[in-house]
């Protein structure tokens, strides 16, 4: 059960820690990936890898671009089909 106003607002908004999207936006992304079946995708801005996780499931290869080396260090072992590119865009 959420205990703070921020936690309650987050739950009501449908935004999750790993995703910077609402449930409806996440559903739309999943639907597009399921329908289009892309072989390759580009993720610009990894942050907490929420959308990266679903791209990794639906695509053979994903290029993940982020300025923060933390992203590659943290998520590379979790997603073998993702190539991380670190640097400014």
Automatic annotation (TrEMBL):
SUPFAM superfamilies per record: S-adenosyl-L-methionine-dependent methyltransferases
Record-linked InterPro entries: SAM-dependent_MTases_sf
Domain of life according to the entry: Bacteria
Protein name: Class I SAM-dependent methyltransferase
């Amino acid at each position: 059960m959420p205990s703070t106003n921020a936690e309650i607002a987050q739950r009501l908004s449908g935004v999750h820690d790993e995703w910077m999207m609402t449930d409806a936006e996440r559903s739309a992304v999943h639907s597009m990936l399921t329908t289009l079946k892309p072989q390759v995708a580009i993720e610009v801005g990894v942050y907490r890898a929420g959308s990266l996780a679903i791209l990794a499931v639906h695509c053979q290869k994903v290029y993940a671009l982020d300025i923060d080396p933390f992203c590659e260090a943290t998520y590379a072992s979790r997603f073998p089909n993702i190539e991380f590119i670190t640097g400014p865009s």
